[in-house]
Amino acid sequence: MSKRGVCIPIVGVISFSSTKSIVLKAPNHTAVIYASNIPVYIRKLQRQKEYLTVAQMEELSETIMQHNQPYIPYPMCNKWGIESAELIKGVKCNKCGRFEMVKKINGWNCPNCGNIDRLAHIFTIHEWFALVSHTITNKECRNFLGIESHQLASRILNSMNLSRKGKSKNTTHYILEWEKLDNWKGRIDEK
Q1: Which of 25, 48, 67 is at the close of a domain?
Q2: CA distance readout (Å), 41 to 5, 13, 52, 147, 150
Q3: Which of 6, 39, 143, 173 could form a disulfide with 1 if both were Cys (CB 3.0 to 4.6 A apart)?
Q4: Per-residue pLDDT tens over the stretch 145-175
Q5: Is the distance from CB of 38 to CB of 15 less than 8 angstroms?
Q6: Residue 7's domain spans which residues?
Q7: What's the CATH number where 183 sits?
Q8: Do 91 and 178 reside in the same domain of the chain?
Q9: How far apart are CA 128 and CA 135, in angstroms?
Q10: Are residues 10 and 62 located together in one domain of the fold?
Q11: Which domain of life, per UniProt (predicted)?
């Protein structure tokens, strides 16, 4: 904004989307609020003067929209220095939280609670892309999901609307394009 000659005060705040979040030790210099409290927080901020006219705000808004790019901070393991071998493998049950689901004809079955979920693998594959790598191979898919069948892994990856790179079974990499993904946020919110 300063490159465009816009000088307005910026206030930092940490916002949690879920009210189930608990802050054990809040920083002294930054407010910590829930997303639902953002409007109240903004209204309480002291206003010293008018920094932008309505026309300037509309122009700034258009400029921001034209230059907007999605923020995709993945893969997270690289950022945080976590080895992928340290991650829990397997398909997670969305009812009991165990990583023990087994693929059967009717879907993914949880031996712990009996839950059946035909799409449980989708969340797990998305977690791979978020945590480990921008690409996944059939072998990596089998290892991460805890399955042995090469054909099952191929069917799963081919059903997920992923981009493909390479032609032979040993060099095919599947790529998730985060910008085109609509259901990912919904699945995270459900968890």
Answers
A1: 67
A2: 27, 9, 20, 49, 53
A3: 6
A4: 999 999 999 999 988 888 888 776 666 788 8
A5: yes
A6: 2-67
A7: 1.10.10.10
A8: yes
A9: 9
A10: yes
A11: Bacteria
Task: Report the domain count for the chain.
Answer: 2
The 10 Å Cβ neighbour count of residue 176 is: 23
118/86 same-domain check = yes
- Contact status, residue 107 vs residue 101, Cβ threshold 8 Å: no
- 80 and 102 share one domain: yes
pLDDT tens for 55-86 read 988 988 998 889 887 777 778 888 888 888 89
Rounded CA-CA distance 39/35 in Å is 9
**Global pTM exceeds 0.85:** no
Residues 91 and 145: beta-carbon distance below 8 Å: yes
Secondary structure letter of residue 94 according to DSSP: T
Same domain, 111 and 133: yes
Cα–Cα distances (Å) from 126 to 24, 120, 188, in that order, read: 29, 10, 10
Q: Average of pLDDT values for 32-56?
A: 86
Q: Which one, of 80, 91, 65, lies nearest residue 153 by Cα? A: 91
| Size of the chain, expressed as the number of residues it contains | 191
Cα(145)–Cα(97) distance, rounded to whole angstroms? 15
